[in-house]
Amino acid sequence: MPESTLTTKLDGREQIGNCRHMRNRSRVWLRGLASLRITGIVLLLLGAGGVVASTQSQNSQWLIVASLSLLVINLSAALVSNPLFRLKPALFGMHIGLLLLALSLAYGHLSRFRGHFEITEGQGFDPHQVIVDRQGLLAHELPLEDAFRQGEVRINYAPGMVRRDTNSRLLLADGKTSIATDGQPAVIEENRFYVTHNKGFSAVVSWWPAGGDTASIGTLHFPSYPRLAPMQQLSWTAPDGTELSIELEPKRIPQDENWTLSHSMSEALLLVTQEGNTTRLGPGESIRLEGGVCRFEGIRMWIGYRIFHDPSLYWCFASAMVVVCCLAWHMAGRYLRKSKRNTILADAGRVKL
Amino acid sequence: MSDYNLWFYLAAISYHLLAVLSIQELIDRCNDYSRWIGGLVVTGTLFVTIAIAWRWLSYGQGPFLTMHEILISSLFSLSLIYGLAYVFVPITRIGAPFASLTMLLLFYWAVKSDPGIRLLPPTYETPWLWVHVIFGKLFLGSCLLATSIGIWLLTPVKRFVRSVRYLWVPQQLERQVWIWLSIAFLFHTVMLIAGAVWAQDAWGRYWDWDPLETWAFITWLCMAITLHMRSVFPPGPRALSMLAMGVFVLAFLTFFGVPFISVNPHQGAV
Ligand code: HEM
Questions:
Q1: B119 and A162 in contact by Cβ < 8 A?
Q2: What value of ipTM does the predicted structure carry?
């Protein structure tokens, strides 16, 4: 055999040896990463993250994200390298479910949007009015302007101030109606609109500038009702700079019968105070100021919404269900089969006796 | 005395007798009181059921909100679950003293708490309430079983138990602790999922680390760690018993302690 060939062969053998060595080394690494000791530590870290999250929300996210990432690495390594998972399909399925759950949670974390806003009956949705509470890096756009128009708001109360169900009607752009109630958000373009218990009266006012420029219309939100029932007043600076104090007179809250909160629970009357002089305004009446005329159009209800969007919600639920079903399967296999075997053994013992 | 109190106190008599007889049963070599004990658990459960049904029919809503309601519904569920286990799984009978003391504790606590009614918030009108609550009770019941059996792994059974019917070997007791702990873990997982779905619909977030959620999650993690330890550092009978007790104490404090710092079971959320 020519030397060169031999050399090549030897090189080849050496390479095969190296490959095996490297494969063994990577297997050792993988086994190390898959250690159940690491799992214990990671689960403890996750618990610590939870405790920190419940006391202070700012710095906790990183601890949770870091421990979830470690969990994903540890679990993936175990799923690949632990032979036990090949022997126990239910346990394997359960841990796959856990892996999917961790990934869905991570995706949700990045793509979640949370915000809140207030809107008055008859007003169109304006995304610019939404105050952002939380917006992930991959969060999508909010619905377009006028995706819906706020319809009637009615909140039922038991005698006194015991809140029962809230019903808020949303008139969608396609002409359909959607109702948001407690425990059932309105879903528009995959955004979930939740009613909150923050609501109250709103005065609709229009402003007619003295120069004959185009009039504008807007709403003034009074403090939350009935929580702040005795404080139904606000200060407003008109477009011409005049300082006004505006007060509303709600009707008496029934103490001995059920009642419904709607705009009719307030007298349609505004008490407008300017430099110590108070004027009573009914709907359609106006007050003349230096730079124009302010007209009171009527009383409506405003309501606060929480807006939430998280594309991972269904994935989280589906993977959690995989976890539960596979866990039940694993437990049934582990304990029911064993107790059946024990019964058979016990029966065999009895036969012998 | 109202009908509600009457049924409630009749149940209390059953639980007191149960506590006395269950201790007597373990130390009496000759007599078998298990039928009496089984009967007492069943009657106790029946009386609590009637008391709760009476309250439910009078007020038109179930016991889901106030501390008193949480205590009486837990008394019902623990009594029912332990009663079923007592009748159908003989090895669990050794746990009767611990189980009956737990029921008495719940009874005295319920007597001390305000029995007044508060209207259920509208967010409670959902089927997820049932899934969440039922699996929560099943979880606590399984934990009670694990602990009431596991407690005998801390002290040699032979030192206290005279009745030959209860001289289980530690391996048998240990296996039972593992079984009930695993079942508790499964129920707890379902409870957390149902709670998250409900919270998403009711409050627009599925998890917010409120004290109840945080402690429920920590209890779940403790169980997950315990189940994993089985193959890495097998804990041995005593440590296993301590772990089971730890999980029960955590669960107990989560269920009955956290509502102390909040008017509602979930802080601030109605
Ligand atoms: C929150 C995360 C986790 C939960 C809730 C969980 C839950 C469980 C449960 C309930 C069992 C069955 C125990 C039994 O049969 O008694 C189990 C077994 C197992 N888990 Fe996990 N697990 C988690 C994460 C992990 C991770 C990250 C790994 C990665 C190494 C892992 C590896 C294993 C292995 C190898 C077993 C089999 C143990 C044995 O029976 O010998 N688990 N796990």
A1: yes
A2: 0.90
